[in-house]
Amino acid sequence: MQQPPPYSQQYFLPRRKQRVFDPGAMTRGDWWTVVAYILFFVLGGASLIGLIPGYFSAFDTQEQALFGINLILYTTFFIVAMVHCGAHFFESFKTMKYYPWAKWLMLPGGWLLTIFFSAIVTTLFGGPQVSANQEALQGMTTAVPLPMMFVVTAVFGPFVEEYLFRHLLIGKLSRKLNIWVCALISTIVFASIHFLNGGGIASITQILPYLMLGVLMSLAYILSGKSLAYAYLLHFINNAMALLMLYLVYPLLPTGV
């Protein structure tokens, strides 16, 4: 049996090289999911759900009805995405075997970094401005219980978006294009999608948080060896913290803050 090296020599052993989790090539199911996402989220097909007779009257408020549409769509897309990449997703959790301390610390650190950088830029450009997407989310907090909002916004939503914007737009598209070009495309599309059907962008302070998150997710995905799981964990923490702030902290602030 081979003996391990002396303790004094273990510090000089080479580190294990980061494993790359090959996402494979685009499948027919991937393409159909992309087309469906464009139809429902980009071209406004989600509004068709509201045309179902009696749909809006089944809810007490319009915010609850709009949340119901999001619940239906994100639950459906979550299941579809999990069918397409579930095995790859769970396999990519093994990225935590490589440089684990750095990766575990980056999970809360990445969120704090985006908050810090966004605060600096917001101050430089004249104070915070809330996007239409953020206003809609804040409106729902008064009508939808936290557990239900948490499932859709922190669990299902990030998985769907990481599957589309990182797993497909970076992981699989990088078979055809330079991976950093793919990262740029992913970041721009990811930030832009949050302003569709929302009146556009009025200020850099509105789009900045989404650009920062897109950059963070893209870097995390690439540097973790195309780990869909790691990018998802970062996205999950960001959305979860944002929700907890809206539900638990924001109501305690003085009116007008």
UniProtKB/TrEMBL annotation:
Source domain of life: Bacteria
Residue intervals of the CAAX prenyl protease 2/Lysostaphin resistance protein A-like domain: 147-241
Entry coiled-coil feature ranges: none
InterPro entries per record: CAAX_protease, Rce1/LyrA-like_dom
Keywords tagged on the record: Membrane, Transmembrane, Transmembrane helix
Membrane-traversing stretches: 34-56, 68-90, 102-126, 146-165, 177-195, 201-223, 230-250
Name of protein: Peptidase
Originating species: Glutamicibacter ardleyensis
